[in-house]
Design brief:
By secondary structure, this protein is an alpha+beta fold. It folds into three domains: about 100 residues, Rossmann fold, CATH 3.40.50; about 70 residues, 2-Layer Sandwich (Dna Ligase, domain 1), CATH 3.30.1490; about 240 residues, D-amino Acid Aminotransferase, Chain A, domain 1 (2-Layer Sandwich). The chain is built from 14 helices and 22 strands. The longest helix has 19 residues. The structure holds adenosine-5'-diphosphate.
């Protein structure tokens, strides 16, 4: 195991990584921007280094500054968390060149899977069903219109290098498609510095189900079952749960086996997630691979009893997986609500500012992953996630009741948050029945 690592991230995930390291006896160096200088989680680190101003390009996205911090503090590895540089293959390569272990997959598999067109081809090769769509990238409007006619509307235009729910456009007819294509191209060029687009059949009322994977350097791969992340707003997850209420055991096994086949074909190492979409007939299609730890990883930890962060560190340090597939069981039901500093009554406008009152929930089966507290100032510079509320109970009705109770206990003032929205969703009869899809929130609220 490493003796000291650097955490190239902030907020709740930085704290999550510190906690795993502490339990493993690994020292932590946490880098921070000037905007985070007063953050309480920094006190939990063994060392902290300021790497620049609030602007991400000057700090959390600045590779030379992070590498300098790593060299000065003499760490053996870097954990990138999620977001920022977590899926940046160039960063992983620089770490490699500097003889610092990158706690994640190799730059090669990140590059391969980060390109969604290549990932679709790989899935095909691994005999994993993909949604009908373009063979490769689509060059122009004409080509897109011809293809859309062939696969049938509605279609979704996606950026090859896309992520975070951005750069996607749904088109219901040719007029739509032509303007959407142009806009998507411009957005992709600005957001991802890569204007390459591809086309897929848009699956209406789809469910998003993803499979958690762990793979070691010796080629051992296990899955830790699925998470249902169908509750989304603008393609961003809001509430996640496991097991998925939509799957029966046969389909669950099939999906998980497909995910393992795919990551084996990519020679993938470390923790990763294979995302699928399920159509109304419960046919599943590969969507993408996320080559990092995900925000929603705690629900998998709760039902399997396996600490994913610790395994990320062990795998990067060269340890082999001691977990056998048949011993990895889903026990009970876990749900996660993302608590964002946003105003649901006002178009989900971000609500930065100082938290004056922070009363956190607790009790049996409740886990709260947060870096926030009374007196914490939410910066407008970073994403609005201020915490993740997770519950774990024996059955789904018990988990729902527990989550409702925990949300009712949770008070963050005067900042507006998504606590009220989560409570409304949890109280909705459609949610109780498990009959939800990726469009449910937008249709209902
Ligand atoms: P990102 O990497 O930006 O998160 P994904 O490919 O994972 O993009 O898609 C995010 C979400 O967009 C999915 O969970 C789903 O809600 C929606 N989506 C993507 N592709 C399709 C599709 N072909 N049909 C229906 N919805 C889709």
């Amino acid at each position: 195991m490493f003796s000291k690592i650097l955490i190239a991230n902030r907020g709740e995930i930085a704290l999550r990584i510190i906690r795993a390291c502490r339990e493993l006896g690994v020292q932590t160096v946490v880098v921070y921007s000037e905007a985070d200088r007063n953050a309480a989680y920094l006190h939990q680190a063994d060392e902290t280094i300021c790497i620049g101003p609030a602007e991400p390009a000057e700090s959390y996205l600045n590779i030379p500054r992070i590498i300098s911090a790593a060299e000065i503090s003499n760490v053996e590895a870097i954990h990138p968390g999620y977001g920022f540089l977590a899926e940046n293959a160039h960063f992983a390569e620089v770490c490699q060149e500097c003889k610092i272990a990158f706690i994640g997959p190799s730059p090669e598999s990140m590059r391969l899977l980060g390109d969604k067109v290549q990932a679709r081809n790989l899935a095909k090769h691994a005999k994993v069903q993909i949604a009908p769509g373009s063979e490769g990238s689509v060059e122009n409007e004409e080509e897109a219109a011809k293809l859309a006619e062939k696969i049938g509307y509605p279609v979704i235009i996606k950026a090859s290098a896309g992520g975070g729910g951005r750069g996607m456009r749904i088109a219901h007819n040719e007029v739509n498609l032509r303007s959407a294509f142009h806009n998507a191209q411009t957005e992709a060029a600005t957001a991802f510095k890569n204007s390459e687009l591809y086309l897929e059949k848009y699956l209406e009322q789809a469910r998003h189900v993803e499979v958690q994977i762990l793979a070691d350097q010796a080629g051992n791969v296990v899955h830790l079952w699925e998470r249902d992340c169908s509750l989304q707003r603008r393609h961003q997850k809001v509430i996640e749960e496991t097991p998925s209420p939509a799957l029966d055991n046969n389909l669950r096994e099939e999906l998980c086996k497909a995910a393992v086949r795919l990551v084996k074909a990519a020679n993938y190492v470390n923790a990763g997630t294979v995302e699928f979409l399920l159509d109304k007939k419960m046919k599943y299609y590969f969507s993408e691979v996320n080559t990092r730890i995900q925000v929603e990883h705690p629900i998998t930890e709760m039902v399997t009893g396996i600490d994913l962060l610790k395994w990320q560190l062990r795998i990067a340090a060269g340890e082999h997986l001691k977990l056998r597939q048949r011993d990895i069981k889903q026990q009970g039901v876990a749900i996660e609500c993302r608590i964002n500093a946003e105003d649901p009554a006002n178009g989900f406008q971000p609500c930065p500012g100082r938290i004056e009152r922070f009363i956190s929930p607790g009790g049996f089966g409740v886990r709260l992953d947060t870096h926030a507290h009374a007196g914490y100032v939410i910066s407008p510079r970073y994403d609005s996630l201020i915490g993740k509320l997770i519950v774990h109970q024996k059955t789904r009705p018990e988990a729902i009741a527990c989550m409702k109770r925990a949300l009712q206990e949770f008070h963050i003032e005067p900042i507006k948050t998504t606590i009220s929205l989560c409570l409304e969703i949890l109280s909705h009869p459609q949610f109780s029945k498990g009959k939800i899809d990726t469009g449910f929130i937008e249709r209902t609220w």
